[in-house]
Design goal:
Layout (H helix, E strand, L loop, with lengths): L4 H11 L3 E5 L3 H13 L4 E6 H7 L1 H15 L5 E8 L2 H10 L3 E4 L6 H17 L3 E6 L5 H4 L13 H11 L3 E4 L16 H10 L4 E3 L7 H9 L2 E6 L1 H15 L7 H23 L6
Parallel strand pairs: 1-2, 1-8, 2-3, 3-4, 4-5, 5-6, 6-7, 7-8
Helix pairs in contact: 2-4, 2-12, 3-4, 8-9, 11-12
The structure holds glyceraldehyde-3-phosphate, 1,3-dihydroxyacetonephosphate and zinc ion.
């Protein structure tokens, strides 16, 4: 059952668990996410980036996810979301396709630019019943940037600015930077828990954590208890999928594409299962 992302995350926020927002690029990953949501009776968010809209075809991937969600899991709350819309145009494209939740990611822009564009998108989105996630501070892609000494301070979300940003833009959810980074590269030794507490004290919308798909259970619990309601998961899925392919193709004999991709799908399911349990969303559908 398709349910608005905002509704899914407000329930998680109220009950102090988190929901996984899992990135998909194809049929197999989408089925892995939704089958596991059904098996564990877990609410879930299935998301795609602008690159995936280009790769799979925007309408094709949107309707693939929607059809699988409605057909295989009519009793499970499933949100469909655009992840990291980096421009006004890609966000507009997703809204036109039918996404009821979009992220506008202006985190690499100056505060004022990020704020103005986010506000403009929120106005348009809300008039169409669509919810919006924005990012303040910047969750870096450290592998991409090959940085040696990371100056974490310059990436972190400022709690007072977060309040001002949410008040000014009217966003529905906020992605925060507390020492988290995309990919399994380098992160701050420990996230800045005090900063998260300060943000959650000032901001009432659900908070989202990107770049934490390899976090161990203890650390996940620490940030959920301090106000995180959603975890984005991409790298862990990519690695599981590729690992499954490597395994099944190792001896070079298999020629049934369904067996090859089916193995990759099963590997992805294991990651989803583990994450849903750690996030505490299992059984919350
Ligand atoms: O942060 C989200 C993804 O890791 C970026 O994925 O390669 O689809 O843009 P992408
Ligand atoms: P990882 O790639 O570190 O799992 O982060 C996922 C993410 O933030 C997608 O938006
Ligand atoms: Zn992200």
């Amino acid at each position: 059952m398709i349910v608005n992302v905002k509704t899914i995350l407000e329930k998680a926020q109220a009950q102090k668990y988190a929901v996984g927002a899992f990135n998909t690029v194809n049929l197999e990953t989408t089925r892995a996410i939704i089958e596991m949501a059904k098996e564990l009776a877990s609410p879930v968010i299935v998301q795609v980036t602008g690159k995936t809209l280009d790769y799979a075809g925007g309408r094709a991937i949107f309707h693939l996810i929607k059809n699988i969600a409605e057909f295989y899991a009519p009793d499970i709350p499933i949100g469909l979301h655009l992840d990291h819309g980096k421009s006004f145009e890609v966000v507009e494209r997703a809204m036109d396709i039918g996404f009821e939740s979009v992220m506008y990611d202006g985190s690499r822009k100056e505060y004022v630019d990020n704020c103005l564009t986010t506000k403009k998108i929120v106005e348009i989105a809300h008039s169409r019943g669509i919810s919006v996630q924005a990012e303040l501070g910047n969750v870096p892609y450290l592998g991409e940037m090959q940085m040696e000494n990371v100056d974490w301070e310059k990436y972190m979300t400022d709690p007072d600015q977060a309040k001002q940003f949410v008040d000014e833009t009217g966003v529905d959810t906020l992605a925060v930077a507390i020492g988290n980074a995309h990919g399994f590269f380098r992160e701050r030794g420990e996230p800045d828990y005090d900063r998260l507490v300060a943000i959650a004290k000032r901001v009432s919308v659900p908070l989202v954590l990107h770049g934490a798909s390899d976090w161990h259970s203890g650390r996940v619990q620490e940030v959920i208890s301090r106000g995180i309601s959603c975890f984005n998961v991409d790298t862990a899925i990519r690695l599981a999928f590729i690992g499954g392919l490597r395994e099944v193709l190792r001896d070079g004999e298999e020629t049934d594409v369904r067996k090859v991709l089916g193995t990759a799908k099963e590997c992805v399911k294991e990651v989803i299962k583990e994450r849903m349990r750690i996030f505490g969303s299992a059984g919350k559908a």
